[in-house]
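The passage that follows is intended for readers who have already worked through the single-chain material. We present the inputs for a multi-component assembly, then the predicted structure in tokenized form, and finally a short commentary. You are encouraged to pause after the input and sketch how you expect the pieces to fit together before reading on.
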Amino acid sequence: MTSNASTKGVITKKDLRRLSWRTLQGATSVNYERFTHKPLVWALGPGLKKIWADDPKGYSEALQRHLAFFLCTPQIKSWMGGLMLALEEELKNNPSMDPSSINAIKTSLMGPLSGVFDSLFLNCIRIVACGVGISFAAQGSVLGPILYALIYNVPAFIMYFGTASIGYRMGTSAVTNLQESGLINKVLEAASIIGLIVIGGMIYSNVSVNLAITFGPEEALTSLNDILNGIFPGILSFGTFFLFYWLLKSKKVNTLWLVFGALIVTVLLVAVGVM
Amino acid sequence: MSILLQATLLGLLGAYCHLDWAVGSLYLNRPIVLAPLVGLILGDVEQGLYLGATLEALFLGSVTIGTYISPDAGISSILASAFVINSGLDTQAALLLAVPIAVLATSIQNVLWAFYSFTSKIADNYAEKGNEKGIYAVMWIEGGLNALLKFLMVFLAWIFGSEQVVAIIGMIPDVILDGMTKAGTVLPAIGLAMLATTMMNKKNWIYLLLGYIGAAYLKLPTIALALIGMIIVLTKFDFSDFKNVLSGNAVSQGGKEIDDNDF
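Having made your guess, compare it with the prediction:
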């Protein structure tokens, strides 16, 4: 490990733990211009104050630096904060370093890493948590919300409290590593696979589209729905899913119109006796 | 329980919808958690749980990702659940109420977040003076106002709207309510489709089919599907360089580690 400040640093384990705690306030205030920049300064603040203790001008510049645009997955803010403190220390000890490189690194990491971890947390872990939670809650069990909360938050808290020191030790070389190793794409693909499997299962258990159409003589009434389900269970729900998918993906239909449209169409189909 | 106390308790749940972002983004401001709590306040936890399952399935695809701010699932699930429990109507009637409330609540919040772009200048001034406490104060006041706004949205809607909304729902013809009940099992397909658009492609859609078959033919629960997914992922990808990359040690382009390290 080369370019990190672990030998000359003033940042201790305690400071990093404090950083982790303060990243929990990660979206206390949000605005449309720079999003969650103030909570970032809230999290970095105590560390910055320690690093720039004997340099008020440097401290003020650091505060201004981190009030720039900041938006990323909540669960990687701790790791990100650790890295930022390492870079600030490097800047303090190495006046030839370009201060703008800190925000350049922050900004270049924000996008790709958030892409990966939003997928991991919102499209994979959250979907698993919801799938499990909904299946219990739908039976009237309080385990539903409880399991939902735990499945989502146990990994989240491992990230919050386990990654500040990793970020701090990383240094700049690892930043390039992340981008060149192909790890980002691997995690993204893996999260998508798990997410899609769970979504597939949830289509079957949460969506049901049934036809009320029957035919044949009175004594041997045949339901069209039963015939269709005999071919492929829930074929209409599966088809409906792909219809919506196509409308969203290829036709770029607005979600709200889709919801209202689906409501109206369903009501009409029920009214005429098809559903 | 007096309507004032109900409104206050529901309002506090509303405030929590924002405060969740100040206590670790726990995602407890979602229908599956809020609706049962509304049920607890109004004395019908069981229906709250059913409502939670129904509304969560509706809002599943509706999450704030990056700069996309989604319709407010939290506020709308509190109010929709409360109105439905109070009116003694069917669970699915909540769907009728949830979407318009969600859109309205998000538009109100949008105004606030646009306004906060201006108050950020105050924080900039404090930064120039090296006064971090000033920046923190701006952050907490903004966050506090946001929570207050959500408290008031729920509180006032309950005080002024409860009877009217219930009366209006009572006037809806049966055929529409029947339709709503059926729609309740169609709408989750939209939420799931929204999610799929962010990750499905020509190469991996087959995994969606796998999950569907697992549930439809083998009746596997969600946890089993997720575990199968993990096994597939672990056999398909080599994650041995994960630790090295995160700790900043050298890795080769192929992803295999070069040096065994002490970390």
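Commentary: Chain A has two domains: 13-196, 208-271. Residues 13-196 of chain A form one domain. How closely did your sketch match?
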